[in-house]
Design a protein that fits this description.
Blueprint lengths: L17 E6 L3 H17 L7 E6 L5 H10 L5 E9 L5 H20 L3 E8 L2 H6 L1 E3 L2 E2 H16 L3
Parallel strand pairs: 1-2, 1-3, 3-4
Antiparallel strand pairs: 5-6
Helix pairs in contact: 1-5, 2-3
The chain binds 5-nitro-6-ribityl-amino-2,4(1H,3H)-pyrimidinedione.
The site of 5-nitro-6-ribityl-amino-2,4(1H,3H)-pyrimidinedione (INI) has 16 residues, from strand 3 and helix 3.
Amino acid sequence: MLNLKTIEGKFEAQGLTVAIVASRFNDFIVDKLIGGAVDYLVRNGAAKENMTLVRIPGAFEMPLVAKKLAASGKYDTVICLGAVIRGATPHFDFVSSEATKGIAQAMMDTGVPIGFGLLTTDNIEQAIERAGSKAGNKGVDAAAAALEMVRVMEQL
Ligand code: INI
């Protein structure tokens, strides 16, 4: 549009190797995110044989696992899917902030794009809305961002 040399990623997932890290905590939500992410990638050309799902206890464990997978050299991208839902104590704030910081750190330490599909919501209704109902599916969004980032990074 501005006549600039522009680098951007195509949404082509052929040959993409993916690790999905998904928490068991709030699995009725997280399973919807996984379904959305896998469906998105397959519809864009990825093969299920090139995808590995790693189930972990909760969001707090996500950075460690995401970092190990990203550093393994086996995957073009790692997609983190989970749901932290606010309760009556400050627990939510500690879990969500450590998970978010740790996932970002894993991406920066390894140079591997990581899709961030960790819901942090005030209540269950907000989580349901973001897991395939009125506010879309954040698993799809995380997969799309991960794919776009892989294709951008290949060109830089
Ligand atoms: N883990 C989540 O993934 N979501 C939550 O909402 C949550 N809450 O609210 O407690 C949660 N806690 C567990 C945490 O991630 C660890 O698995 C646990 O503390 C064991 O280390």
